[in-house]
Task: structure prediction
Amino acid sequence: MEHDTPEKKTGGEDGEAHRALIGRSMGRWRLLVGRRVLARLAIDNVAPGLEISHLDVLDAVRRAEPEGEVTVGTIADFMRIDPSRASRIVSDMVARGALRREASQADARRIIVVMTDLGKKLMREVQAVKRGVIETILADWPADDVAAFAVLFDKFVAGMERIHQNRENAGHGDKPATGA
Result:
């Protein structure tokens, strides 16, 4: 029985050229992600008064809700920021009417964060902007390429998440951001 070596799995010399192209593309992507291009487009189109951190909090609540009640600590963990910073952003979003605080049903001493109808509407509109950008980019791609890219990009991101989680589990994770 013949086993696949890393070279066979990634295509030898052609694979090396492909890995190099992926590396260069990741560098370009990092700059766009670092500048938060999609979030800025969404804010400009949907809610000009918001900051990117506001969208991040709404997204953290949206992602955390299926797992149970969401606290400021949960949001801080999702965003990888200091809990006091998360609390300030949540307070701002409560004042804007996008979030509300309420007593936990499981433990009335605990305060949870819940997205309001306005918060849900903002998230739907932000998602619509993101979908619009994706649709524009993929408009002239063949359907088979779009399907393959969707699966492969998800697989790639999942691999990055595994590497990050393994690094955190080994005690090499990033420290929470405390910046203003």
